């Protein structure tokens, strides 16, 4: 009986030792349902044996952990224990130029990481602990496919070692060292998002005695590089929990990738993990279908024809949209030069003027200078008059600049206020206050029903005189209008006269000697030179209209 009891105890000890050894070393050449604990978007695909951590779902993450916890420090001494692992993964973006945030091999205190979020936090951290401010007890090796400035990422294709935060203690762009064929070594970059066409194999070695963690990466099937890609010292006895789960995490953000684990070998307690037989690993969806499924596929002619037709339609539609955009940009294209910087606040976009004038349809005047349109500014609701100076007009760019310089700074109740201006493809556009009663010449030489009374004429003359007095004496410089005539006197709703059209104006300093101008009568030359055209003009001696002269006689 004693011998039987001793034998039973020995068998129990052997079974316990076998369980302990099994817990410290395992190999997954593909995965069976239930072999790993999955959470979030992760799942084991029974048909293929793949561990898929995420699919093409945005803002999602998934975990796949070995179901039993492990101890990474010696129970007696507290010293960290060595471990070794290798695995094959693939990251397949939904679109070539937009992908998720990568995959990580992780040591975590639980299968369900509390508070973890997707996106740049890789399903392992959140906003409160991602910078290492907390004690998450998570150590990870990240294959990161996004560049997040918050974590000082090297680029959008790097490998990093994270200790209780996503600001890696060591990281470098993804790549590997290999034989250059001439007895030396060569470093090549490697894309982490190669998908099914380029799965990756990763080796991670941790030496408990030196606390050195080394990570090596290469294309799956290539010889293991002799030189690790990234390494650093990590004291696991402080960085992880007593019971720690080992496995994988992956996450998507605004863009999505499918993250796969094809095979995994792990060993805790010294020595290297068993090599993976890549020929026995499951195939990724992009590797193709089985021969039987190919035999059942329908002929490709019709689908290919439809595809070509769709592509042609899309190209034609794109060309039409591009032509429309170019045409619209040309329609509203504007010009701007250095001298206009000073008058920037007065500038208005051509599109706003186009909308205000209903496409320049409401014409209220035309002449040698161009055309004038009525408009309503969409933002303020103010009524305006928009003068479009034609290319062949007597008012060219020089006169236009003069009017900008003069009227943008003049303020008087008897001067028509210049509100805005615009230049577009050679056209010059000026925006004024709208004068509902038009110009003086329309009332003087127009229909008899619009004839002005003598009281109104006197009011207009006084207004023009007040405006001229301001121009000559009231402003910081002397402004000589040089084109006073009834067509340039506009009338507001109360029949107040206001001077407009400063296209020929000139500025002089007070006390200067402006050039004289010869005034012409209808029947010949005036027998003397006038010191200023507009000094006599407000009295009515500019005879090309004759009206102002009549008004002066009335006074």
TrEMBL record:
Q: Which PANTHER family match?
A: PTHR27007
Where does the signal peptide begin and end?
Answer: 1-22
Provide the catalytic activity annotation: L-threonyl-[protein] + ATP = O-phospho-L-threonyl-[protein] + ADP + H(+); L-seryl-[protein] + ATP = O-phospho-L-seryl-[protein] + ADP + H(+)
A Pfam family of this chain: PK_Tyr_Ser-Thr
Q: Which InterPro entries match?
A: ConA-like_dom_sf, Kinase-like_dom_sf, L-type_Lectin-RKs, Legume_lectin_dom, Prot_kinase_dom, Protein_kinase_ATP_BS, Ser-Thr/Tyr_kinase_cat_dom, Ser/Thr_kinase_AS
For this protein, what is any one GO molecular function term?
carbohydrate binding
Q: Organism source for this protein? A: Triticum turgidum subsp. durum
Identify this protein by name. non-specific serine/threonine protein kinase
CDD domains for the chain: lectin_legume_LecRK_Arcelin_ConA
- Organism classification, top ranks? Eukaryota, Viridiplantae, Streptophyta, Embryophyta, Tracheophyta
Q: Name one GO cellular component term.
A: plasma membrane
Q: Report the EC code(s) recorded for this entry.
A: 2.7.11.1
Q: Which UniProt keywords apply?
A: ATP-binding, Cell membrane, Glycoprotein, Kinase, Lectin, Membrane, Nucleotide-binding, Receptor, Serine/threonine-protein kinase, Signal, Transferase, Transmembrane, Transmembrane helix
Family membership, please give it: In the C-terminal section; belongs to the protein kinase superfamily. Ser/Thr protein kinase family.
């Amino acid at each position: 009986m004693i011998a039987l009891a001793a034998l039973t105890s020995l068998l129990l000890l052997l079974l316990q030792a076998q369980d302990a050894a099994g817990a410290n070393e395992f190999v997954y050449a593909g995965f069976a349902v239930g072999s790993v604990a999955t959470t979030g978007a992760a799942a084991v695909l029974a048909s293929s044996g793949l561990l898929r951590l995420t699919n093409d779902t945005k803002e999602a993450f998934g975990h796949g952990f070995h179901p039993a916890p492990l101890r990474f420090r010696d129970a007696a001494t507290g010293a960290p224990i060595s471990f070794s692992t290798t695995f094959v993964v693939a990251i397949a973006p939904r679109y070539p130029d937009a992908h998720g945030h990568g995959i990580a091999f992780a040591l975590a205190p639980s299968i369900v990481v509390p508070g973890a979020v997707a996106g740049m936090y890789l399903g392992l951290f959140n906003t409160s602990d991602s910078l290492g401010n907390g004690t998450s007890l998570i150590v990870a090796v990240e294959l990161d496919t996004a560049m997040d400035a918050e974590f000082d990422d090297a680029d959008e294709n790097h490998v990093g070692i994270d200790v209780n935060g996503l600001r890696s203690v060591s990281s470098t762009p993804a790549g590997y060292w290999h034989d250059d064929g001439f007895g030396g070594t060569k470093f090549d970059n490697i894309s982490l998002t190669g998908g099914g066409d380029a799965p990756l194999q990763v080796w991670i070695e941790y030496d408990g005695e030196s606390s050195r963690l080394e990570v090596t990466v290469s294309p799956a099937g290539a010889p293991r590089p002799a030189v690790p890609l990234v390494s650093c010292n990590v004291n696991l006895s402080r960085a992880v929990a007593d019971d720690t789960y080992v496995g994988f995490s992956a996450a998507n953000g605004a863009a999505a990738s499918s993250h796969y684990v094809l095979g995994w070998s792990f060993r805790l307690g010294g020595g290297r993990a068993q090599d993976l037989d890549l020929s026995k690993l499951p195939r990724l969806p992009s590797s193709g279908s089985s021969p039987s499924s190919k035999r059942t596929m329908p002929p490709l002619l019709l689908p290919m024809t439809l595809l070509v037709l769709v592509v042609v339609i899309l190209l034609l539609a794109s060309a039409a949209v591009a032509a429309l955009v170019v045409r619209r940009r040309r329609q509203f294209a504007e010009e701007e030069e250095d001298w206009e910087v000073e008058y920037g606040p007065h500038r208005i976009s051509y599109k706003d003027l186009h909308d205000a004038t209903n496409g320049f349809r409401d014409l209220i005047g035309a002449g040698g200078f161009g055309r004038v349109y009525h408009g309503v500014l969409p933002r303020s609701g103010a009524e305006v008059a928009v003068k479009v100076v034609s290319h062949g007009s007597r008012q060219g760019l020089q006169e236009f600049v003069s009017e900008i310089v003069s009227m943008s700074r003049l303020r008087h109740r008897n001067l028509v206020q210049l509100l805005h201006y615009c230049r577009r493809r050679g056209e010059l556009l000026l925006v004024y206050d709208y004068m509902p009663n038009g110009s003086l010449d329309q009332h003087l030489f127009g229909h008899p029903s619009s004839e002005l009374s003598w009281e109104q004429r006197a009011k207009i003359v006084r207004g023009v005189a007040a405006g001229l007095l301001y121009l000559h004496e009231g402003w910081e410089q002397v402004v000589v209008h040089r084109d006073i005539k009834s067509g340039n006197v506009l009338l507001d709703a109360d029949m107040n006269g206001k001077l407009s059209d400063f296209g020929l104006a000139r500025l002089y300093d007070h006390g200067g000697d402006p050039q004289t101008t010869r005034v012409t009568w209808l029947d010949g030359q005036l027998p003397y030179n006038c010191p200023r055209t507009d000094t006599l003009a407000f009295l009515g001696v500019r005879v090309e209209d004759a009206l102002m002269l009549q008004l002066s006689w009335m006074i």
